[in-house]
Amino acid sequence: xxxxxxxxxxxxxxxxxxxxxxxxxxxxxxxxxxxxxxxxxxxxxxxxxxxxxxxxxxxxxxxxxxxxxxxxxxxxxxx
Length: 79
What we know:
It is built from 2 helices and 7 strands. It is of the alpha+beta class. The protein has a single domain, classed as Alpha-Beta Plaits. The chain has a 5-stranded antiparallel sheet, with helices on one face. The chain has a two-stranded antiparallel sheet with strand order 2-3. It is globular, with a radius of gyration of 11 Å.
């Protein structure tokens, strides 16, 4: 599974940070950060989700109030 995070869409509610340690708070920028994410296009970051974190990553995506987080399994969006 992979997670994609659109940092430009993020409004800094940090609900994802509370749900999964794959996200951290960047208080200076007022946005979350995808830990170990690599920029795949302008403002969009992606990384593999460890198997033991798949549930938490999906929950983080569902908790985002602006849908800045998407989870993919074998190329198909699941959240």
